[in-house]
Amino acid sequence: MKPDLATLKRLLKTDAGADRVVPPAGFTVRLTLFTAAAMAFLAVFALALSLAAGRLADSWGEALARSSTVRISAPAEQMAAQTAAALRVLQTTPGIADARALSDDEQQALLAPWFGPDLPVADLPVPQLIDVIETDAGYDAAGLRLRLSAEVPGAVLDDHTRWRRPLIAAADRLRFLGWVSITLIALATGAMVTLAANAALAANAQVIAVLRLVGATDAYIAGAFVRRFTLRAFGGAATGAALGLVAILLMPSGGETGGFLTGLRFEGWHWIIPLLVPPMAAGVAFLSTQMAARRVLEELA
Q1: Cα–Cα distance measured from residue 240 to residue 246, given in angstroms and rounded to the nearest whole number
Q2: Residues 55 and 257: beta-carbon distance below 8 Å
Q3: Are residues 267 and 213 in the same domain?
Q4: Is residue 277 domain-shared with residue 140, that is, in the same domain?
C-alpha cells in the first residue's frame, strides 16, 4: 500500500461502493475538516509572515547599505565652515554619489518622535547631519574616516553597519521562524489526520472484517479511507486558506511609511503561494492516512 500512481488514480476516481465503506458523518469528519481549515488558516499567516520578513530584510539591507551619515559637532561659529569642508571631502571621495547637509526642518523632523514637533533646533547645540548616498561600488570607509579626522576634526562618519547587521539578522530570524511554523503546522496536520483515520478504522473494524470475507482487498479498503480523508482535508484546507486570504486582504496597508505588521501581506506573484496550501494539506492527509490504514489493517488481520 505504498503511495504510487495507481493509488493516486484510485483517489481521483469516484467509487460509490468504496465511499460507503467510510462513514460520511461523525466526529472524525468534523475533526478532519476543522483541523485542516484551522491549520491552513495559520499556514497562510505563517507564509505572509515569512515573506514579509524577507521583504523587510531586503529593504533594510538595501536602504542602509547605500546610505551613511556624517555627524559634525563644532561650536556654532565654526559649524558652517566645518560643514562646507566635510561636503568638499565627501564630494571628492570615490564611491560617493551624493552628499548634502540636512536642513533644520529635516533634523527637527528626525528628533520629533523623541522630543516633540516644537523642539527649537536652531537654538540648541544639535550636531549638523550630512546625508551620504553611496554608489553601487561603495567607498573606502576607513580611508574616508582618516580624511575627515585630518580635515574636519569635528566630523564623525557612521556607515550604519552597527544598525544594519542586527536589523537584517532579526528579519532573517523572523523569516526562518515563519518557515519553521509552516513545518510544525504540516506535522500537526498529519498527526491529527492520523488520529482521525485511526479512530475511523478502529470504529469500522467489523465492517472491515465483513469486507474481507466477501473478497475486498486491503488496498481497496485502505483506498476508500485514504480517498475520503484526503478529500476532507482538501476541502477543509481550501476553506481555511480562503478565510486566511480574506483576513490578509482586510489588514490595513501602511504604504511606504507602514510598519512591519501593516506590511504583513502578499505582493505580486506571492499571492499564488497560498493557493498551494490546500493541495499540500491533501498530500499530508494522503500520506498520513496511508500509513495509518496500513498499520491498522495489519493489526486487524
Answers
A1: 10
A2: no
A3: yes
A4: no
d(CA 27, CA 197): 11
What gap in Å lies between CA 91 and CA 135, rounded to an integer? 12
Cα 204 → chain centroid? 42
Question: pLDDT (tens digit, 0 to 9) for every residue of the chain, 301 residues total?
Answer: 444 555 555 555 555 555 555 666 567 778 888 989 999 999 998 888 888 877 777 666 665 666 788 888 888 788 888 888 888 888 888 888 888 888 877 877 777 766 666 666 566 777 888 888 887 777 788 888 888 888 888 888 877 666 667 777 777 788 888 889 889 998 998 888 888 888 878 877 777 787 788 777 777 777 788 888 888 899 999 999 999 999 888 877 655 444 555 567 788 888 888 999 999 999 998 888 888 888 887 777 6
Residue with cell 552597527: 162
Is the distance from CB of 121 to CB of 108 less than 8 angstroms?
yes
Q: Supply 77's cell numbers.
A: 561659529
> What does the DSSP assignment read for 11-73?
HHS--HHHHTTS-SSSHHHHHHHHHHHHHHHHHHHHHHHHHHHHHHHHHHHHHHHTEEEEEE-
Range of the domain at 46: 5-61+165-300
Return the closest-CA partner of residue 145 out of 133, 132, 159, 135: 159
Q: What is the domain count for the chain? A: 2
Instruction: Could you list the beta-strand ranges (E) of the chain.
Output: 67-72, 96-101, 128-134, 155-158
Write the DSSP assignment of 110-129 as a string of letters.
Answer: HHHHHH-TT--GGGTTPPEE
Angle at the Cα of 254 from the Cα atoms of 252 and 257, rounded to 5 degrees: 170
The pTM for the full model equals 0.65
Is 269 in the same domain as 142? no
